[in-house]
Specification:
With about 500 residues, this protein is α/β, with parallel strands linked by helices. It folds into two domains: about 100-355, Aspartate Aminotransferase, domain 2 (3-Layer(aba) Sandwich), CATH 3.40.640.10; about 360-490, Aspartate Aminotransferase, domain 1 (Alpha-Beta Complex). Helix content is about 35%, strand content about 10%. It has 15 helices and 13 strands. The strands form three sheets. A seven-stranded mixed β-sheet has the order 1-7-6-5-4-2-3, with helices on both faces. Helix 2 runs antiparallel to helix 10 and helix 4 runs parallel beside helix 10 (about 340-375). The two termini are about 50 Å apart. It binds pyridoxal-5'-phosphate. Pyridoxal-5'-phosphate binds next to helix 5.
């Protein structure tokens, strides 16, 4: 006799450590608070009409409730502190704890951006020292420190390029962007009114040089090219590309998000780059994900430096100063203040603790790890391009042909195995792309465990077990969501019937 199937639903909806959690507002008890404060003594009301009329509706909870709430929410998250985070293009590397210690020093953490410069000389020196390292590592003469992320850096670089053209009375229209580019590149160019002209990739996964040259003309303001590119490959025609765009009077914007692959080995300034953002939160280990904060300083060539945004730090006989106003060349301000001080501190801490030789080893180890992954998985998945890679390994979905399993199904199955999925369906130039970036901070043991899981799943997909993949994930707090709907109409309550009522 076969055993009766057992209903494994729990009374509470919790499943072991997977604990359901109401919204913090649903736990609200008016008047409850974490601390007892004395009654406000009698005072003269000076706010007049601007005084608040009633309570602002903050939930009332005791301290242990708040701690438990956020601890439980944090446990629903995946983090680099838990395991390999193979998202390609994102460079999810370990954030050394020394960075956190430095960023929390009261002299840094308690600064106010409006303090007089005489009281923040140390902070300005820190920004200036970080700027010096960035200029040295990239071989570029200037850097704008204020952009708050990579995409913001792109905006900074492109506004600088536009200002340089306008200063010559030459309002150019077109920006050449390879088809493999990160979506932020065309979005940035388009957002400030440029017309984006896509350049195809060749069969080697690199910019098609002939097609690129054919598109050049006097209306081309410049090009935005990622190097190493999003296929994980070094653009080896890069100097020809730079020369060609300069030949028509355009500028070369380099997306430097993948600088981790070449830091300490190649200086973008030697390749003819005019502007390049550096994601401190990728290459220099400051934490990211979940919406920030990031930091995206932009290094600039001699030709573009005069158009850089305000403010910037200078060093004179009386110490450090902030230049808040310029002649009329700067394109203006990009951000309220001077940049992300906490990220600057972490990035400089990372640089100083590694030293120049350590940073060079970072890129070497990152490329080695990616190639270890590529070599180990090459026979089970299908490598998108022959040969070795830079910092990330790119596969296409040929290995899934005839299995009825898609890249998305494969990624969902990885969640059940306890891994964050790799980047999927990007870059667009590769069909069903799976892009994996291990970074240098993964150990061989950690990579081997990851590899055995990916290999095991590939074997399972090829064995005809498509139904398993279609149902995955099985072991998560929520199963497969309608991703479009989940993004537009998120259901945040743990009891969906309450949500329904709320929606009605
Ligand atoms: C991450 C990334 C960006 C954008 O950087 P953000 O800091 O996320 O704004 C741009 N281009 C590439 C290639 C990237 O990987």
């Amino acid at each position: 006799m076969s055993p009766q199937p057992v209903n494994t639903d729990t009374v509470s909806g919790n499943r072991g450590l997977m604990i359901e959690e109401p919204l913090i507002f649903e736990m609200d008890v008016r008047g409850r608070s974490g601390v007892d404060l004395p009654d406000v003594p009698k005072h003269q009301e000076r706010l007049g009409k601007s005084k608040r009329k009633g309570a602002i509706g903050l939930p009332g909870l005791a301290e242990p409730q708040v701690v438990r709430h956020y601890t439980k929410l944090s446990q629903k998250n995946y983090a680099i502190d838990m395991s390999v985070y193979p998202l390609g293009s994102c460079t999810m590397k370990h954030n050394p704890r020394i960075n956190e210690k430095m960023a929390r020093l009261p002299g840094i953490a308690d600064l106010h951006p409006m303090q007089p410069v005489s009281t923040v000389q140390g902070a300005l020196e820190l920004i200036d020292t970080l700027a010096h390292w960035l200029k040295t590592l990239t071989g570029m003469p200037a850097v704008a420190m204020s952009p708050a992320a990579g995409a913001h850096g792109e905006l900074c670089g492109m506004l600088t390029i536009r200002a340089a053209h306008l200063a010559k009375g030459d309002a150019r229209k077109r920006i050449l962007v390879p088809e493999s580019a990160h979506g932020t590149n065309p979005a940035t160019a388009a957002s400030i009114g440029y017309e984006v002209d896509p350049v195809p990739a060749d069969e080697r996964g690199r910019v098609d040089l002939k097609a690129f040259k054919a598109k050049l003309g006097p209306d081309v303001a410049g090009t935005m090219i990622t190097n190493p590119n999003t296929c994980g490959l070094f653009e080896n025609d890069i100097i020809d590309i730079a020369d060609a765009v300069h030949g028509v009077g355009g500028y070369f914007y380099c997306d430097g998000a993948n600088f981790n692959a070449i830091v300490g080995r190649v200086r973008p300034g030697d390749l003819g780059v005019d502007a390049m953002h550096i994601n401190l939160h990728k290459t220099f280990s400051t934490p990211h994900g979940g919406g920030g904060p990031g930091s995206g300083p932009v290094v600039l060539s001699e030709a573009l430096a005069p158009y850089a945004p305000l403010p910037y730090v200078t060093h004179g006989p009386n110490g450090f100063d902030l230049v808040e106003h310029d002649g009329d060349k700067s394109f203006g301000r990009l951000k309220g203040f001077h940049g992300q001080m906490g990220m600057f501190t972490r990035a400089l801490s990372y640089m100083l603790s590694h030293g120049a030789d350590g940073l060079r080893q970072v890129s070497g180890d990152a490329v080695l790890n990616a190639n270890y992954l590529l070599a180990a998985l090459r026979d089970d998945l299908t490598a998108a391009f022959p040969g070795t890679c830079m910092h990330e390994a790119l596969f296409n979905d040929d290995f899934l042909e005839g299995t009825d399993v898609t890249t998305l199904d494969f990624a969902k199955a990885m969640i059940d195995e306890g891994y964050h999925p790799m980047t999927m369906y990007f870059p667009l130039v590769v069909h069903g792309a799976l892009l994996m970036e291990p970074t240098e901070t993964e150990s061989k043991i950690g990579l081997d465990r990851y590899i055995s899981v990916v290999k095991g799943l590939a074997k399972r997909a090829k064995s005809g077990d498509a139904a398993y993949f279609h149902g995955a994930p099985y072991h998560t707090p929520r199963r497969r969501l309608d991703e479009t709907l989940a993004a537009r109409q998120p259901i945040l309550r743990w009891k969906p019937e309450q949500s329904k009522q709320a929606a009605e």
